[in-house]
Every structure is written in structure tokens, then in C-alpha cells.
Write a structure and sequence with these properties.
Its cofactor is heme. Keywords: Heme, Iron, Membrane, Metal-binding, Monooxygenase, Oxidoreductase, Transmembrane, Transmembrane helix. This is Cytochrome P450. There is one protein chain. With about 650 residues, the chain is α+β, with helices and mostly antiparallel strands. The chain folds into two domains: about 190 residues, Up-down Bundle (Four Helix Bundle (Hemerythrin (Met), subunit A)), CATH 1.20.120; about 350 residues, Cytochrome p450 (Orthogonal Bundle). It contains 23 helices and twelve strands. Strand 1 and strand 2 form a beta hairpin. The N terminus is likely disordered. Bound molecules: protoporphyrin IX containing FE (HEM). Protoporphyrin IX containing FE (HEM) binds next to helix 18 and helix 23.
Length: about 650
């Protein structure tokens, strides 16, 4: 048999157990009073003690509350019976003075009596809310914490101060029970056992959670936890509990906009560095509108405008490298990336001026992994100054592009319109371009670094790619249609982004409304994130994930992959938060590979090629290279 009130199901056994305890304790208290000379006074005192006895397990259970219905039912029943005993106490306290409450105030002091009456009213209200409503509204939860603190302090004062014997012992037991339950709760929370229906995982240290582990090595962070906990786990990052989703199924779930939003979801320093408002930090209709406009700058027609810029930049650096013949490639690729980014977004030419912009971007990027305190002279402060320098550059470029239209990406963005005919305001445009600077700079140099590294390490892949280039693009300038013939290079370009640890995870999301995944509760207002690199190294989906195999991306094989298993640029539709630069990076890798393979060959002298722990990991020795021209005679020997 069950006592069903509202949606609560309290079993008869639960009710009987607590009622029996209540009955015995109250009767014992009232009988004990009978033995004392001043009956009503002692009835009031002993019923207060009876209420305290019932209050101790109630507050213990409340502090340790979790999903267990049984535990919660016992809390509610003890909370109610303790309250009833407290009413008995008040009843006798008032009855002590036959006249009225006013006299009670006079005898016991206004503050104490008023405080007791307020407690009784608040407690009664809370019981009504707990019994009759199933709402877990924040204000109900907050007032419940409040009334428990209030009642706890009242009982502690009532039993410890000026009391002796049994009352004082009760006070000490109450204090110990509260301390113990707080300790157990803290311990459970730290170890992720606070609620059995949450995903597994750990919250790490108080306040900072697991943020240091993430900053130390963001790729290892997700990889290790995925191995330990599986495709969904909880953690605590940047002052907030976060749930990570890894693997196609979990990643797809994370993309569901009914439950997750990107608006106001990212740590405050990321938002500040990106000047608060650009695609990754927006959601809903404004994100859709802007994304449609931005995507207009990533079409095949647009790529045909950028390909000459890429070729011009590639040629500039290839000639320089030919002269240098022996150098560290990563600093060079950073310069190339700066020149190309500057060409796309401000109309700059390759060379020292653009490379100086690269240094501003580098300082800006350091802000994303620094301690977010703006002191002007520290990394974060300098990153914010660099952000403002980039914004000033963009403002200047917008004015210049208006005066003299150009066919770079900024030129296109100034003219394109969304479906509803709207354009970006200058304020919106400068912030979007700031983010594009950030996204493109890293994406370009990292992809080209991995391309050069891979081709040097796999002569058979380099040779096959060279044959394809000689067959379909042996000379002359390139265009998008011609690049479509380079099928093997496309496979290499895709495998590079699967194989190497570029992005460990997506931008952060926020749980809009509570939901469930694989029977785990995903609580409202928690952070959420999709694991990228780990998702692409699941052996059931990508066999032998640690081996570089471009053939995984042969058309049929690629088409048969589960949804959201290949996610180097995020997942979902183009209009969602998926990176718009995806196809541009394929174009870039192809153009660079064509220009490298048509004329050059390279070898890597002995060095440490192990990847470091950077946000985008790179070989520790900066990829030293011996670079020269390629001829059939030298058969892939550096000249
Ligand atoms: C190897 C190169 C690149 C990689 C691996 C990459 C990866 C990513 C990833 C993982 C995201 C976040 C997706 C999410 O939060 O769900 C993203 C977002 C974005 N990326 Fe890229 N990206 C690359 C290059 C580029 C380039 C070259 C551009 C532009 C020129 C670009 C522009 C963007 C933009 C605008 C967003 C925000 C999209 C949105 O929130 O709607 N990315 N990228």
C-alpha cells in the first residue's frame, strides 16, 4: 500500500517507521515532563528536544539528498514530524502564559519569540511546498536551503547555549551530524557520486575543478577520460560543471539545439578575447542569419577568387625556402599563414608587413591559454591589446575596401547578403573578421605543417600524390574545378585532419533544459562540449586509428561512416556551428601540395618529431627540413 500525495509515493513502511519514532519520542518527552514540577514549562522544553531529535536525521538526509526517492521520502517525513513536535513546543510555550502571545513575547524576549514564530511559519510553508508541489523551481530550492540553515541554527542555539546535560549532548550530536553530512557530501561530489544518475567523472579540485589538467594537455585530457569513463563524462572546467560527449552518437546528441545552446556558453575570457559577439558565441536566429551570410564567402565561386591569392603566397615562400635550403619549417609556415590570412582579410601582400600582423595574431592567441587577468603587461593583457590592434587593422581595411573593392574574403563579405536580404553591419563584420583571423591563422599553418611532415614520413604517399599532380595539374595556375580531379590529395587532406590532434573539442555549449542521454541526467545550466580528436580515433569506426591511411576517405568508405564520426570541423549541417573553413582548408592543402610536389622535394634531418602540448600540438624541434628542387634524376633526393 502506498500513500500517494501529489506525485510523491511514500510507502506505508516509510510512513509507519517515522510515525512510530515520532510517537515514541514525543510521548517520552511529554511523560518526562509529567515528572517535573512546572508541567507546561517542561512540556515546552522536552517537546523542543523531541523536535531536535527528529530534526537531526532530517537535516542529515537533506544535506545528503540525491536522486534516491527513499532517502527523500524519509527526509520529508522526518522534516514534517520534527515540525509537528516543534508546534507542540510552541503550543506549550504560549500556554505557559495563559493570557496571550503578547505576554509570551514579554517573558521570553521579543527576538527569540519572533524568531521561533518566523521559523514555524517558514517551516510550515516549506512543508506545504514539498508535499503539494513537485516543482523544483530555483526559488523553492533556495528557500529550502534557507529554512534548513535557519532551523539548524535555531536548534544549535536552543540546545547548546545555556544548556546542560541531555540538551547539550543533543546539540553536540546535531553539530556533528551537520558537519559529517557536509563532509560526506563534499567527498561524494568530488568523486562524482553525488547523484548516481549523472554521468561518471570527477569534479577535480575545489573551485578550479579539472581546468589545470585541461590546460596542461587538452588532447590527453579528453583521451584519458574517454578511456576511463566512456562516451559521456562529467568534469568541472572554468568554474562550472561540464559534460563531455565523445563518439558519433554522443556528439550527435550534443548538437541537438533543443537542449544545447552556444549563447553565453563559453568562459568569459574567450568571449572577451573574441570581443563578445561572433558566430561561435551566438545561437538561434541571429546565428543562423549571420552564418548564412558568412557561408557565402565559402562557395566554389569564392574559392576561385582566393586560389590566386593562395598561389601567390605559396610561390613567394617556396622561392624563399629554395634559397634557404635548410630551415625550421614551422616558423616559416606561421609566416606564410600570416601572409595568407592578411591577404584574405585586409588585402595585404606576402612579406614582412604581413608577417608583422602574424606576430600580433600570435600574441592574441596566447591569451586563450593564459591566466585571464588583464594587467596590460601580462599575456592576457597583451592579448587584449593585440585584439584591439587587429580590430583597428580590420576597420582600416573595411574603409579601404569600400574605396577600392577587392576580390578577397573581406571584399566578398562586404557585398554578400543573407536570405532575408540583410547584410552585416560594420560592427558585426569587424568582430566576425576578428574571429576569422583567429580561426584561419592557426588552421592554415597547422594543416600545412602536418602535410609536409606526412609526405616526408611516407614516401609512398608522396610518390602517389606527385603522380596525381603530374597527371592532373602539371603546370599553370589552378582553379577549383581542376582541383576536383585531385582525389588522392583530397583523401590526404581529410586523413590529416583525422589523424593529427588539431582541435581536442568544440567550443563550449550550455544545457538549455534538463535532458537525458544513455540514462544519464544532463542537468540544466551545465556546460557541454563535444570531443573532436578522440571521436576520430575510435577503432570500431576508424580501424587502426593510429596509422595514417588516406584510403579511409575513398568515396564509398567515407559515405558509409556513421553520422558525426568525422568531425575535425565540428558536426551537423553547414548552417549549424560546423566550421565554414572546412572546404577552404581542403583547397589550401591541395594548392600547396600541387606547388610543393610539382617542383620540390624535402627530407627531415634527425630531430625530435614528438608533438608538444600546445593548443595545436606541433613537432618539438619546429620541423627542421632540408629543402630543394625535385628532378626525375635525383629520384626524390634533395638537390
Ligand atoms: C584545419 C583547419 C580548421 C579546423 C580543424 C577548424 C575547426 C573548427 C572547429 C572544431 C570549430 C568549432 C565547431 C563547433 O564548435 O561545433 C570551428 C569553428 C569555426 N571555424 Fe574553423 N577550423 C579550421 C579552419 C578554419 C578556417 C580556415 C576558417 C575561416 C577562414 C574557419 C572558420 C571558422 C568559423 C567562422 C567557426 C565558427 C562557426 C560557427 O560557430 O558557426 N575555420 N572550426
Amino acid at each position: 500500500m502506498e500513500i500517494v500525495k501529489s506525485k510523491k509515493k511514500i510507502s506505508l513502511a516509510e510512513f509507519a517507521n517515522t510515525f512510530f519514532a515520532f510517537g515514541i519520542i514525543l510521548i517520552a518527552a511529554l511523560l518526562a515532563a509529567e515528572l517535573k514540577p512546572n508541567l507546561n514549562l517542561h512540556r515546552a522544553i522536552y517537546s523542543f528536544l523531541a523536535s531536535s531529535v527528529l530534526f537531526i536525521p532530517a537535516i542529515y538526509l537533506y544535506i545528503l539528498h540525491g536522486k534516491s526517492a527513499n532517502k527523500n521520502n524519509y527526509w520529508l517525513l522526518l522534516w514534517i514530524f520534527s515540525f509537528l513536535a516543534y508546534l507542540v513546543h510552541l503550543f506549550y510555550k504560549v500556554l505557559l502564559v495563559p493570557d496571550n502571545i503578547k505576554a509570551t513575547f514579554a517573558i521570553h524576549g521579543t527576538a527569540i519569540t519572533a524568531s521561533e514564530l518566523v521559523l514555524a511559519l517558514w517551516w510550515g510553508l516549506d512543508i506545504s511546498l514539498a508535499w503539494f508541489s513537485d516543482s523544483s523551481a530555483t526559488w523553492i530550492e533556495k528557500q529550502r536551503i534557507g529554512v534548513h540553515i535557519y532551523a539548524g541554527l535555531s536548534f544549535l542555539v536552543g540546545t547548546l547555549i545555556g544548556q546542560q546535560g541531555f540538551a547539550r549532548i543533543l546539540g553536540i550530536i546535531l553539530a556533528i551530524a551537520i558537519l559529517l553530512s557536509l563532509l560526506v557530501r563534499y567527498h561524494n561530489t568530488r568523486n562524482g557520486r553525488d547523484s548516481e544518475d549523472l554521468p561518471p567523472g570527477s569534479y577535480g579540485l575545489p573551485l578550479i575543478g579539472e581546468t589545470i589538467a585541461l590546460a596542461w594537455d587538452n588532447h590527453q585530457f579528453y583521451r584519458q577520460r574517454f578511456q576511463k569513463y566512456g562516451s559521456v563524462f562529467k568534469t568541472h572546467l572554468f568554474g562550472k560543471p561540464v559534460i563531455a560527449f565523445i563518439g558519433p552518437e554522443a556528439f550527435t546528441f550534443f548538437l541537438n539545439q533543443e537542449y544545447f545552446t552556444r549563447a553565453k556558453a563559453n568562459p568569459q575570457p574567450i568571449q572577451e578575447l573574441l570581443d563578445w559577439e561572433s558566430l561561435p558565441l551566438l545561437d538561434g536566429s541571429e546565428h543562423r542569419r549571420r552564418k548564412k551570410i558568412i557561408l557565402e564567402a565559402f562557395t566554389p565561386q569564392a574559392f576561385d577568387k582566393y586560389i590566386p591569392l593562395i598561389e601567390q603566397t605559396a610561390t613567394y615562400y617556396l622561392e624563399r625556402w629554395e634559397q634557404l635550403s635548410s630551415f625550421a619549417w614551422i616558423p616559416e609556415y606561421r609566416k606564410l599563414s600570416a601572409s595568407l590570412t592578411n591577404a584574405l582579410f585586409t588585402g595585404g601582400s606576402p612579406g614582412p608587413e604581413s608577417e608583422a600582423v602574424g606576430e600580433i595574431i600570435e600574441t592574441f592567441l596566447k591569451g586563450f591559454t593564459s591566466i585571464p587577468i588583464n594587467l596590460r603587461w601580462n599575456a592576457y593583457g597583451k592579448a587584449l591589446q593585440s585584439r584591439d590592434k587587429l580590430l583597428a587593422l580590420i576597420d582600416k581595411a573595411i574603409v579601404q575596401h569600400r574605396q577600392q573593392p577587392q576580390s578577397d574574403m573581406l571584399g566578398l563579405l562586404l557585398t554578400v547578403r543573407g536570405e532575408d536580404g540583410s547584410t552585416l553591419t560594420d560592427e558585426q563584420l569587424r568582430r566576425e573578421v576578428l574571429h576569422l583571423f583567429f580561426a584561419a591563422y592557426g588552421g592554415i599553418y597547422i594543416s600545412l605543417t602536418y602535410l609536409s611532415l606526412t609526405l616526408a614520413q611516407h614516401p609512398e604517399i608522396m610518390s602517389r600524390a606527385r603522380q596525381e599532380v603530374n597527371q592532373y595539374a602539371p603546370s599553370g595556375s589552378l582553379n577549383f574545378a581542376q582541383l576536383q580531379n585531385l582525389v588522392y590529395l583530397k583523401q590526404i587532406a581529410y586523413e590529416l585532419r583525422r589523424f593529427y590532434p588539431i582541435n581536442a573539442a568544440t567550443f563550449f555549449g550550455l544545457v538549455k533544459k534538463e535532458t537525458q542521454f544513455q540514462n544519464f541526467r544532463i542537468p540544466q545550466s551545465w556546460g557541454a562540449v563535444g570531443g573532436i580528436h578522440t571521436t576520430m580515433h575510435i577503432p570500431q569506426i576508424f580501424p587502426e586509428p593510429e596509422s595514417f591511411q588516406p584510403c579511409r576517405f575513398a568515396t564509398e568508405k567515407f559515405a558509409s561512416l556513421p553520422e558525426n564520426s568525422y568531425v575535425p570541423h565540428g558536426g551537423g549541417a553547414r548552417e549549424s556551428h560546423r566550421c565554414p573553413g572546412e572546404d577552404l582548408i581542403t583547397v589550401l592543402i591541395k594548392v600547396m601540395a600541387v606547388h610543393l610536389l610539382r617542383r620540390y622535394n624535402w627530407e627531415l634531418p634527425p630531430q625530435n618529431l614528438e608533438l608538444n602540448r600546445n593548443l595545436f600540438p606541433i613537432p618539438r624541434d619546429d620541423l627542421k627540413v632540408k629543402f630543394g628542387t625535385y628532378t626525375e634524376n635525383t629520384k626524390q633526393k634533395v638537390s
